[in-house]
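Exercise (ungraded).
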Amino acid sequence: MTSTPYDRLIRGLAADLKPVRRLPSPVLRAFAWLAMVAALAAGLASFADLTAVWERIIAAPDMWLAVIGSTLTAVLAVIVAFELSLPDASRGWAVLPLPAVVLWIAASGFGCLRGWIVPQSHVAALGEARDCLIFIVALSVPLSALLLLMLRRAFPLYPGMTAAIGGLAVAAAAATLLNFFHPYDAAATDLAVHAGAVAIVVVANRALGGRVFGPLAYAPINVTEGEVAPN
Amino acid sequence: MTQGLQPNVIALRAGGRLLPSAFAFMRTRKTRVTDARMARAEPQNRSADDLRRSSQMAAAQAGDRATYEALLRDCVPLIRAFAARQGVPADHLDDVVQDVLLTIHRARQTYDPTRSFTAWLRIIAERRAIDLLRRFGRQRAREIHSPLAFESYADDTLRPAHNGDDAGRSNRVKKALTTLPERQREAIQVLVLEDRSLAEAAIATRRTKGALKVSLHRALKALRAKFAGKDLGKP
C-alpha cells in the first residue's frame, strides 16, 4: 500500500472508531424538544388562571395573532436549528422561520398602536415589564441547555447560525409561555422589553454555540494510538 | 392554412411542453411532479462507487474499522478534487483533507445511508475548503511572507561564542516555562519540546491549529521579554 501523508491520521481515526447510533430525522428531533416544551407548558398552565388568559388572548386579533406568531416561530426555528445541525444542511433553511417572525413582530407592534385606540387598557409599568424580562431569560436557560445538548449530537458546520436560530426558537417558546402570566396589554415599553429579552437569548445562544459546537467541546481523538508510519 | 396551426395549439394545451422555459410554471401538474422527483431521486441515479461508499459508511457507523479505514483512504483523492475545484491552492489541499477527514469522523452519526455519500462528502469538503480560504485570506491580509528578509538579516542577540553553558541555560528556560500560563506551556511542550507537527499537536491537545499558533507565539514573546537584555550564554 502506498504511504500517504494521512496514513497516521486515517489509522488513528479508524482506531478511534466506535459504533454510533444514526440520528433520527431533524424534524423528529425537533418534535422531541417541542414535546419537552409542551410538558413544561402543561406544568405552567396548572398555575395560571386559564379562563382569564383565554379571555385576554381572544379579546383582540393582534393578541392571538402574536401568540400564533411566537408559537409558529418556535416550531419553525427549532426544526431549522436541527436541520442546520447536520453538516450538509443548506444555509437556505435559515429563512424558513422568517414569515412567522414577521407575523409575531407585526402583531405585537400592532398591540402598541392599540394603546391609543383603547386608552383604558392597563399598560405595564416598568417594574412589571422587568418581570417579563426575567421570566423570558430565566425560562430560556433550561430550554437552551436542553436544545444545545440535543443539537450537539449532530455536527453543525455553521455553529453560530445554528445556535442563533436555536436561540430564536427558545426565545419564541419562552415568549409564548409568558402569555400564561401576562395580565397586561402589549405597550411600547413592554414590547421593547420583550424584544430585548429575545435579543439577549439569541445573542447568548450564538455566543455559547461557538463553544458548545467548537472543536474543544468534543471528545479528543487519540491519533497516536495507530501505528506510526515510518517517515 | 388554419388547419396547419391546429395541431400546435392542441399540443400546447395538452402537455404544455411547447411552452418556452420561462413559462415552465404553466406546465401541467404531472410534468412538474416528475421534474421534482427527478431532482430528488438520488437512489436511482447513484453510481456503483457511490453505493459502495454508502454501504462502507453504514458499516463504519456500525463500528467496522477496516472498512472505515478503506473508505477514508478512498475519500482522500475525492476531497482533494473537490477542494481544488473551490480554488484551494495545491500546497493547502492537505489541510482541507485533514479537516474533512476529522469532520467525517465527528459527523459520522449524521450520515443517512439512503442518501448519496459522495454528495454528502462534496458539501462537507466544499465548506471546509471555503473555511480555509477565508482563514487564508485573513492571514494574508495581516502577515507578510518574506523568507529572504528572514535569511539576510542576522539576529544580533545570538552569541555563538557563549554557547558552552547549556545546562545552566536550559535550567533557566525550564524555570521560565513554569511561569507561563497553562495553555502557552502546553503549546511549547507539544510543538517545541516534543517536536510534533501542528496538526498532530492540535489533535493531541484538542485545540485548533490557530489557537496553538497563537499560544506558541505568545509564549515565545513572553519568554523573549523575560530574557530581554539578559544574556542567556552567561550564568
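Further reading is listed at the end of the chapter. For now, observe: Residues 1-42 of chain B have pLDDT under 50 and may be disordered. The first helix of chain B runs from residue 2 to 14.
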